[in-house]
Amino acid sequence: MPHRAFFAFIMPSLVAMLLFIALPIISVAVQSFYVQHERVVTEVETCTPFAGCTKETRVDAEATEKLRNEEPLGRFNGFGTYLDRNHLAVSEIGAILSDNAGFKDAAARIYNLPFYRALAFTLTYTFVVTPFAMLLGFCIALGVDAIPPFYKGPVIFFSLLPMIVTPLVGALIVYWMASSQGILGATLQTLLNDPTLSLKSSAAMTWITLLVYGIWHNAPFSFVVFYAGLQTVPHDTLESAMIDGANRWERIRFVVIPHLMPLATFVGLVQLMDNFRVFEPIVGFSAEANATSLSWSIFNDLRGQVDQLFGSAAATSMLTIVGVIILLSPVLVRTWRDFNRR
Prior knowledge:
Elements: H1 3-31, E1 34-35, E2 41-48, E3 52-59, H2 61-70, E4 75-76, H3 80-83, H4 90-98, H5 103-111, H6 114-146, H7 149-164, H8 167-178, H9 183-192, H10 203-230, H11 235-243, H12 248-276, H13 280-284, H14 294-302, H15 310-341
Antiparallel strand pairs: 1-4, 2-3
């Protein structure tokens, strides 16, 4: 393709990426270096005939509004927001590492810091949900591919229901089912003979519930992609393997899985990005007390009615973007190397 035709072909996509991806990221990066202006405080002296004169401190709303209008981005703070206690907490980490009662104590104190607490759950959710959702989706695809054609339509429909349901609605449904009055919560109480048992009573149970929900919700996407890939597996190769005496597991291992590896890479990339920004399950389960994520931290900074922490939310957003880049780098490098070998 001539260079002129190539650039004319991709120019609309480049313009859209610049306007809707690059520029917003740049604006967020700039905002992360600023913090909100502090309120202008003035000291007012009030005198009365009987009580005499007293001094009190008041917020000068007019001066504060004027300052914010003159400098809408806020006060320049450099990397201060990134290094404060709510983010990387560099000084707090240094203090913990220099004075602790052992590894367990240091880990517990670091976990209590807001950013690292959110990061811990985000990484756990990403690295647990992604492989198990892919495995479950692959197993469903194999099962659906093996059933008679008459039953495939209904089975595919029900298999896609978790993905069709809005994530927040799905999380609310599971939340109600897991409550003490719900079918799951009441069943566990009956089976374990513990009327006080609650899936939301501890951090461990909350994490397990969120992880199981994540696998249930993400598996249909893997199923759709893998099922489509199974339709492209060469039948001649499968028949040759059967003639050579390969059983079903051997055919899957040596024929089907190698054929689906490019699709697995694609699914893994999408699932990693999607799971790293986990948000809806935490809100739906009202799990903030036991589990938070980086996306929830951004939401928490922005939901204030008066002083919204734009700088803090922007810094968390940039750290999230850096985390996604780090997560995807090994897969992208491997894909690029495989492409160059071909």
